[in-house]
Design brief:
five-stranded antiparallel beta sheet, three-stranded antiparallel beta sheet
Length: 176
């Protein structure tokens, strides 16, 4: 089932089988931003059911709301965040202000939803949500942000919350 739109922002959820007290199962959880796919698009991938709790958190809380990043592009933010937290690249070339603002950004939990190196950064900007999606890859034995996989979108906060709410309510029917 798809909530929202692949062309802008959407979430696709497919649940097949649950194990271990509904904590883990087979299915898929895919996020689309500008037709880019984040998550493993296979019907029997591992899916952690705690994604419903994550969706509720993204719906009800402001994420990265006080971090002013409007002057930076999505690729700059993704590289700075990933470079500081997961990579072995040199950070000397990065803007110090950008490094300070992106070091502790909250991302959509790759541990519970994505198993393909995908990350989604959500930034609340007044009445809009800015989403930056990207995937990591290796190049010359270094972990980097895959520029071709990076995209960003600003979406009305009400539309964003409607999509998350529909996805959350769909998942709730599987709760025991």
């Amino acid at each position: 089932m798809i909530f929202g739109f692949k062309e802008s922002f959407g979430i696709e959820i497919e649940l097949n089988t649950f194990f271990h007290d509904d904590f883990i199962g087979e299915g898929k959880f895919i996020v689309f931003i500008n037709n880019m796919t984040y998550g493993i698009d296979m019907p029997y991938a591992t899916t952690f059911f705690c994604i419903k709790d994550e969706l509720l958190k993204y719906y009800s809380e402001s994420i990265n709301a006080d971090i002013k990043l409007t002057k930076y592009s999505g690729i700059e933010i993704a590289r700075s965040y990933y470079g500081q937290n997961y990579s072995n690249i040199f950070l000397d070339a990065y803007d110090r202000d950008l490094l300070a603002r992106t070091k502790n950004l909250l991302t959509w939990s790759p541990e519970s939803a994505f198993d393909d190196g995908s990350y989604i950064i959500q930034i609340d900007e007044d009445d809009k949500i800015r989403l930056i999606g990207f995937k990591s890859c290796t190049k010359d034995e270094r972990y980097i942000v895959d520029e071709k996989s990076t995209t960003e979108l600003r979406i009305e906060k009400t539309v964003f919350k409607q999509i998350l709410n529909k996805a959350y309510l769909y998942l709730m029917q599987f709760s025991t």
